[in-house]
Amino acid sequence: MAFRELGDEPAVLLAVLPARDLVEEILRKTGFTPNVAWRIANVETIRSMVGRGSATRC
Asked: Which domains does the chain have, with CATH numbers?
């Protein structure tokens, strides 16, 4: 899936260093600005939110 296909879907980003900085750098380089609704440090919480369709993982 291309980032542009995500559009304005609410995104959840992992809020743990260095992953947070690396993902945000990659997104900036692609020119995509996600609609970040949540920054969460717990991977299982993110997995649950994405699995339920509450968020798009970036």
From this structure: 3-57 (3.40.190.10)
Give SS3 for 13: strand
- Give this prediction's pTM: 0.69
Non-local (6+) Cβ contacts of 54 within 8 A are: 10, 12
Q: Mind spelling out the 3-state secondary structure of 19-48?
A: HHHHHHHHHHHHCCCCEEEEEECCHHHHHH
Q: What is the pLDDT of residues 25-58, one digit of tens each?
A: 998 899 988 888 999 999 999 988 888 887 765 5
